[in-house]
Write a structure and sequence with these properties.
By secondary structure, this protein is of the alpha+beta class. The protein is built from 18 helices and 15 strands. Helix content is about 35%, strand content about 15%.
């Protein structure tokens, strides 16, 4: 990715109880690594010039993959003042399940610690539609209006479900969002009203002729289709029909009683960044000013409203603070807002992606038909430059995007195979699958960093050890 493309992506991405039956680890699997030499934080955003002891790296790695744990220990400072977790499966087997750091200032990160994952939420929401398709209840090439009649108006009559799931529908704006929603989390649970406004709106382009990231409308668009078919919106569908059978420690709409154990989102500034990108990253603000991104800062453009700038703020430092504030609000987390408010752990993200890496198999069971996996992992037309992000992008009906290095100087975020895919969220969380290698993984953190540095290094170490 070139520098301009990264900055465009960063401008948008900055924007996001344990289920019974989760497999337990062996009792002797807790590992700890404490290098004798403390790590020194760099002077990049979120860094400090002081020494800080490296946190213990806990969890499990399959024998032979110890280098993944060692890489985590060597780069633990990149967690900043928070914590992180990384999990991966290979040929369906859990081979890595590691965590470290702090969930809050007085709470260590634990094996089942969940965190808000921003746009990685879209993959979870899309998975509910994937299940309905697998059951034969949802046709990707049927008009959305066949399931949601009110949507088929004002130029959206021919919008297909595939377009909706692949960011090609042009429904990026929620009319009147600044009146309906606020930063205390009010309004996010007004599902019928949000659906009514989305259905009445005109598309930002002729559906199917271009694509652009539906950053804040994606979840409600998909959830409404799920609701019209099943009688359950995506969060309830996930809870009732996927979380148990798939053993996911995942919530879309996190009940208040389940929020007490969440990792706390750390406010701006971001965590330290990897040395290979520190110099460039330190000057991001200046470079963004030079780029003059009028579409994202001009209230007369659809891009401004697609990014919820009217709610979240204008300048990037304000925007980042407001994102952290919003997704720390109990009301906002409790709502089913599937574009951005899922809470989960790394192991659950790896499990969610495992069937997509294994031709539909999870724990030896065929949970998805191979044809469904192909539909939800194959890039959809039209392709080309994403009109909001400003870079070449490949969207699939599952909202996963193609593999790439997220920043010059770092490895590709989903490993070396170009056809690996995943869904990342602003701040550095993601899940991914690589069918060619039979690998799936998940990474979560609570002190955000958009460079994907720590996670990319962990994935690189995993492939190197395999």
């Amino acid at each position: 990715m070139n520098r301009r493309s990264f900055l465009s992506a960063a401008a948008v991405a900055a924007g996001a109880r344990t289920v019974a039956g989760v497999p337990s680890l062996p009792t002797d699997s807790e590992l700890a690594v404490n290098p004798t030499t403390p790590a020194e934080l760099d002077g990049s955003p979120g860094g400090a010039a002081s020494k800080q002891a490296t946190p213990a790296i806990k969890g499990y790695v399959k024998p032979g993959l110890e280098s993944v744990r060692d890489t985590f220990a060597a780069n633990a400072r990149l967690m900043g003042t928070g914590g992180a977790a990384f999990a991966a499966t290979h040929q369906g087997e859990l081979v890595v399940d590691l965590w470290a750091g702090m969930a809050d200032h007085d709470r260590p990160w634990l094996r089942n610690t969940r965190v808000h994952v921003q746009s990685t939420s879209k993959a979870v929401t899309a998975a509910t539609a994937m299940m309905l398709h697998d059951r034969g209840e949802l046709d990707l090439d049927a008009p959305v209006g066949g399931y949601w009649p009110e949507y088929a108006t004002n130029g959206k009559e021919n919008t297909t479900v595939r377009m909706l799931l692949s960011h090609a529908a042009g429904s990026t704006q929620l009319p009147g969002y600044t009146d309906l929603l606020d930063l205390d989390g009010n309004g996010f649970d007004q599902y019928d009203e949000i659906a009514r406004r989305l259905a009445a709106a005109e598309p930002d382009w002729e559906p199917g002729t271009a694509h652009a990231y539906h950053g804040y409308t994606y979840g409600n668009l998909v959830s409404e289709v799920v609701y019209r078919i099943s009688g359950k919106r995506a969060g309830a569908f996930l809870r009732d029909e996927m979380a148990g059978p798939w053993q996911l420690n995942t919530w879309l709409g996190t009940p208040y009683e389940e929020q007490r154990d969440l990792a706390a989102v750390k406010p701006w500034p971001e965590a330290p960044v990897h040395e290979s990108v520190a110099e460039m990253y330190a000057s991001v603000t200046e470079q963004m000013a030079e780029m003059a991104l009028p579409a994202l800062t001009d209230p007369s453009t659809w891009q401004y409203h697609a990014a919820f700038r009217g709610l979240l703020g204008g300048p990037m430092d304000v925007f980042m603070l407001q994102v952290g504030r919003l997704w720390s609000q109990p009301k906002a987390l409790a709502a089913e807002f599937g574009a951005a408010n899922v809470t989960t752990d790394a192991r659950s993200l790896a499990r969610l992606y495992t069937p997509l890496a294994m031709d539909g198999v999870l724990d030896g069971r065929q949970v998805l038909e191979p044809a469904t996996v192909r539909e939800f992992t194959t890039p959809s037309p039209p392709g080309g430059v994403d009109l909001l992000i400003g870079r070449e992008q490949k969207w699939t009906p599952g909202s996963h995007h193609a593999n790439a290095a997220f920043f010059p100087g770092l490895p590709p975020i989903y490993g070396p195979n170009p056809d690996a895919f995943g869904m990342s969220g602003g701040g550095g969380n993601y899940g991914f699958a690589d069918p060619a290698a039979g690998i799936a993984g998940g990474f979560v953190r609570n002190h955000y960093s958009n460079t994907m540095g720590l996670s990319a290094l962990l994935v690189e170490a995993l492939y190197g050890a395999m």
